[in-house]
Known about the structure:
- There is one protein chain.
- By secondary structure, this protein is mostly helical.
- It has one domain.
- Helix content is 78%, strand content 0%.
- The protein is built from 5 helices and no strands.
- It is globular and about 30 Å long.
Amino acid sequence: MNIDRLTYMANQIARAFEPQGHDSAVDQAATHINKFWDPRMKKTMLEGDRSGLSPIAAEAMVKVEAYVAARPASAW
Length: 76
């Protein structure tokens, strides 16, 4: 998976939820990524350079990282 494409996608997801307010947008973006991203996509994003993420997307990825850490077998 291309990290630039995943960064773009994560930012788009974050932008879609932005009107709900910052905290809700972070939660909803993380939920969306956890539900719909392939394990390889999550792995690439979590192991890659996250400097291009928007603030909401960056916080969402922290939540995704915690989710994956708590459920290693099912999250990947």
